[in-house]
Design goal:
Number of strands: 5
Structural class: alpha+beta
Distance between the termini: 35 Å
Shape: elongated
Radius of gyration: 22 Å
């Protein structure tokens, strides 16, 4: 497993450990390519060929380095970073809409800003039958009703939310084929 951390000097360093035993490996002074390559080239090619998998975040430079250093290793992008990226895209679409309506519909802008967590809540966990008072709304609503109201009329936010949650659901249920087909052809996704 490879990740980075900020060290005392404020620089991004690389840390690795054994993915099975979780035994700490080492901290490499920098995550820059020359430091990482220099470090791992101290191990023989035979040793590096024994590495079967490497779990990483989505730092692109790691992908190229791993392919060069560990020729037999499969690269695994960890779920945390995939979900983080999906959530970031959902939030980006919401913020884009907020900026569009900021001066034309201040009430809707405030609703989008106030209820940001509802966009990231798993859709199957949203209550759709129990009504209650909701800040910034003049009537009692369900959390699902609040989400539906804010998605209504904005195809980009609705689509981004739908695709994002289908990707998250496929990850959660270990449905890799569904996950990758969703990425390849997101226009065919149905709720």
């Amino acid at each position: 497993m490879i990740d980075e951390l900020k060290t005392v000097n404020g620089q991004m360093s690389m840390v690795y450990c054994d993915g099975l035993t979780h035994q700490f490996g080492d901290i490499i002074e920098s995550r820059k390519k020359r430091f990482v390559l220099d470090y791992f080239y101290h191990f023989s090619l035979e040793e590096r060929k024994k590495v079967k998998t490497v779990s990483i975040d989505m730092f692109k430079a790691y992908i190229y380095m791993i392919q060069e250093l560990f020729p037999n290793a499969r690269i695994i992008i960890d779920r945390f970073h995939i979900v983080q990226s999906i959530n970031r895209e959902i939030n980006t679409a919401r913020i884009r809409l907020m900026n569009e309506v900021r001066y034309t519909d201040h009430r809707f802008y405030n609703k989008l800003k106030r209820h940001w967590k509802i966009f990231l809540t798993d859709t199957e966990n949203l209550e759709s039958f129990v009504y209650g008072p909701v800040k910034l709304f003049d009537k009692w609503m369900t959390p699902q009703g609040v989400l539906d109201y804010m998605l209504e009329g904005n195809d980009i936010l609705k689509f981004t939310h739908q695709v994002g949650h289908q990707l998250r659901r496929a990850l959660k249920l270990n449905q890799s084929e569904k996950f990758f087909s969703c990425i390849k052809d997101e226009t065919s996704i149905s709720k």
